[in-house]
Amino acid sequence: MASIINSISFKNFFNYYGEYEDTRYDFLEGVNIVVADNGAGKSKFFNAFLWLFYDQVLDSDDKKKKNVKDFAVKIISDKAKNETSIGDQVQTGIKIEYSTGRYKYQITKSFTATRISEKITDFDSWQITIDDMEVDKTDHILPKYKPVYDAEEKQKIINQLILPTLRQYSFFQGEEVDKMIDFSKKSSIEDAVRTLTNISKYEDIADIVEYIAEKAEKDLNKQTKSTSDHNDRLETALETKKELQEELTQETEKLSEFNALYEAAEQEKNDLEQNFANAEKRKELDDKVSYKNRLLKQVKEDYDSFLDGINNRFFDGNFSWISFGFEDSINDFKEKIQVFRQKRYEKKALLNAAENPNDYFTILPSDSPDAVTLQQMIDSEHCYVCNRPAKKGTEEHNYLLKLKNRPHENTNQKEFVKNNLEDFFGNLQLNAAPFLNKFDAIPTSVLRTREKELELKQRLDKLSSELKALKSQRKDILIAGTESEGTDNASTIINQYKGSIRRMENASSRIERLKDSIKDIKTKIVNTEKEITNLRPKDIPEGYTVNYEISKALVDATLKAKERVFDKMVSLLENHANEHFQSLIKYNDIKGGVLRFEKSPSGGISLDYIDDAGNEVSGASEGFQRMKKFAVVMSIISANTSQYNYPLLADAPLSAFGKAFNKGFFEAIPEVFPQSIILVKDLYDKDSEDKLTDLGQDLMKNDFIKTFYLNEVDEELSQIERTTKLERRK
Amino acid sequence: MERNQILREILSDPELTEKYSIKKNELDSLTTSPPYHKKIVEVLSVIINENDNHLNSSMIYKKLKKIHNI
Amino acid sequence: MNSQEFKSNLVTKRPRYANSRIPLLEALANKGARSSEYSQFGPIYELYIYAMMTGIKKKTRLPLPPRQLTSDFLEIGKWKRDSSLVDFLLMVIFTQTNDLSIDWNELEDMEEDQLNKVISDVITLIEEYANGGLEYLENLHKKGELENSHYLFIDLYKTS
């Protein structure tokens, strides 16, 4: 007998403005899809059920659940609020119809708000009264709703929709799947098993039996003491047993302490596991980033100092840019200095002649040339006197040289100028040498400078973009819950992770030793008990011994039975989970592999994916991880030995799944849930003609899908006017 | 019935079946209602039944003592 | 006066610039401080040399305002550690004989006070060509035509 939701209607509920009839979703058995973008009513859908079951709604601002009464003003549709004048009232509510095989029910929950002052959004501006919950009932043959008055029956009807203990597995929002099924937490699987089995009964019985065994032993010992055949050895044995039992209690306590430590460390490790993998990657990238940073800094420095140095090339003799355009000036200078020297020479010669006329004229033959002419003749390699060539190396030339070089009698080199500036000008030319030969080279030099600058800039840009890419890679590796990007963070996580593994190992070895020791003690106790039995007086009424023995036997048997029931259920869950998993991944390329529930020393269960070769597969995609968990959730529902008769209301993050998963998902869900209502946003494409993505269009055509709704919000309208319009496509 | 299921599960323990000579077909037909063919079956049935009736441990023990005539 | 003395007298002089040029000097020379949107020279004398050579290229000589409106700075001899630059500049300067109205050979026969006058004329020439160059730069600056690039100065120099 399945419960099937027939319809959900909203009145002035968040974005849904208007009467119940205006916002009504009709659903059928099978898969129903409601496409809604964020803000277009997706989470509001859930809120309706939160209200129905728990009288709460989820505050989308802080993601916390709030009581309907306290939060009422925000629940009322903005548009409706706006239309309500002071003194008037507005009603907000939800209405759900569902059927079982026999009956159909209608549940209405609402509240009335009276406006008492101006500010619409102020909680104080409204007076809220919660209306009585209305529950109506009809049979299918003659449908006419009749109200249900009995409070207990009303509650029963609500519970019938989705069984309270199974609500968490059939009614959830996407991210919650992750939270719900965290198998590293021992309690998570225990809760599931508890829901599915009568294990609590076994626990009750185990407690009772333990109590009885204690009492039986006490009674037996009392009897033993009261008989006349009391003896010392028995006394000693009883004492020994008592001591051993105390020791056992202590060791058992220690064991549970270490189990707790192990669990805590394991929990931490699991929490960090994802982060650890990320942290290692991040650390690697961090190292790369800091290396690149250093390089970049170096190159930047080089580049900057290069740029700064460009203008130095004006004044640096190696480049001599300042000389550009002054070639003519310099040639001018060279001419001038030649003229200058020539004139000086002439001056000097004249002075010499004037000073030493005799020198000049007596030594040479009367028609000998004067010194200047002599020099000219030597230079031009021609004798003007005889008008004959006197080439260098010839006898004639040598004779001229001899004449010129004849010793002067008077070698007083009197200064022939007041200020001898020959050196001044000459040295200028000599010293300025680096600047005098670069004129032609300057344009090339400038070009080369530009090229070098470009080169450096390119290197800089390349490094920069490499660095950027590294940084963005690093950013993509999210470390959940840690907003900071510091390298310390990555190292901390790595250390924490390693620390928790160490603690697990330590605890594990202690646990082993304790278990051994406990086993030892138990054996000793058993032996002591045998001794005691032998030593007991034979004339104790049988009832006492039988009582004692039976209760003792039952203690162990009950505990073991409980274990078996637990293990059987886990095994059953494993089988179901694998079945569901296979149908979920039917269209994916994943080869072989099974889900394995591994029991940890502390009694927790870890969910592993083992491939064909028996190796653990980890690090798979997000969609894959979700699928694993969905498989387990579904197994919890289907392993429920009675057929699961409740609808699934789920928020499916299809984009995280991927196309192949989606197909598998929509086919596998109906295997477990007679009815499912899936809310998605990933099928919405506002730019496409029918507002659906490709996947959305595919699903529309799929026979599995029975109804298909599209929620839309007109974003052009103002906040107040913005309401959700629903459109039924199928 | 759940009670029977629990009874059988606990008594299916190998040590018990051996010690108290409970045969397989016997085990499969055990119920928590009388008549009881073995003491241990009676004791456990009482515990299971009275637990469902919300009797506490000491009250259950009193009943058991009567069974054992002590 | 001999060559050494002549040179020494010359290079110990400190050329002057108009105070009104100070903003421009600060914009285009940084003396080690970083703070301009334009390419910069380092010390002021670099800018000064540049301006003077630009002035000489463009043949723009601009007299300075009265002395009290001017300031001096580093002596010529101390411009750049090695003297090849200064000697080169002097080569160019002494080529402007028309400007200087001197004949090199005549220099050698002048009296000391005359020579000193020549020296002072040379300095004036330097100052006025520099002023002309600075005026040119300032006009470009005012018109916003100074390019904000590291090649500002060389580009300008090449087109002058």
Describe the structure.
The complex is a heterotrimer of chains A (about 725), B (about 70) and C (about 160). With about 725 residues, chain A is of the alpha+beta class. Helix content of chain A is about 55%, strand content about 15%. Chain A is built from 21 helices and 20 strands. In chain A, strands 1, 2, 6, 7, 8, 9 and 10 form a 7-stranded antiparallel β-sheet that branches. The model of chain A is unreliable at about 480-485 (pLDDT under 50). With about 70 residues, chain B is mostly helical. Chain B is globular and about 30 Å long. In chain B, helix 4 (about 40-50) runs antiparallel to helix 5. Helices cover about 55% and strands about 5% of the residues of chain C. Chain C has 8 helices and 2 strands. Chain C has a two-stranded antiparallel ribbon with strand order 1-2. In chain C, helix 3 packs across helix 7. The termini of chain C are far apart. Chains in contact: A-B, A-C. Chains A and C meet through helix 10, helix 14 and helix 15 of A and helix 1, helix 3, helix 4, helix 6 and helix 8 of C.
Task: Give a short synopsis of this structure.
Chain A is α+β, with helices and mostly antiparallel strands. Chain A is 56% helix and 15% strand.
Share of residues in helices of chain A? 55-70%
Q: In whole angstroms, how far apart are the ends of chain B? A: 31 Å
Number of domains of chain B: 1
Radius of gyration of chain B in whole Å, from Cα?
12 Å
Radius of gyration of chain A, taken over Cα atoms and rounded to an integer in Å: 51 Å
- What is the number of beta strands of chain A? 20
CATH class annotation of the domain at 4-162 and 646-728 in chain A: Alpha Beta
- By DSSP, the count of extended strands of chain B is 0
Set down the secondary structure blueprint:
The complex is a heterotrimer of chains A (730), B (70) and C (160).
Chain A: E1 4-11, E2 24-26, E3 30-35, H1 42-54, E4 56-59, E5 64-67, H2 68-75, H3 78-83, E6 89-99, E7 103-115, E8 126-130, E9 134-139, E10 146-147, H4 151-161, H5 164-170, E11 171-172, H6 174-180, H7 186-196, H8 199-226, H9 232-309, H10 327-355, H11 357-363, H12 371-380, E12 382-383, E13 388-389, H13 395-404, H14 422-431, H15 441-476, H16 487-535, H17 542-584, E14 594-599, E15 605-610, E16 616-617, H18 622-638, E17 648-651, H19 654-657, H20 659-672, E18 675-680, H21 694-701, E19 705-713, E20 724-728
Chain B: H1 2-11, H2 14-19, H3 24-28, H4 39-52, H5 57-68
Chain C: H1 3-11, E1 16-18, H2 22-28, H3 44-58, E2 70-72, H4 84-95, H5 97-100, H6 104-107, H7 112-142, H8 152-159
Antiparallel strand pairs in C: 1-2
Helix pairs in contact in C: 3-7
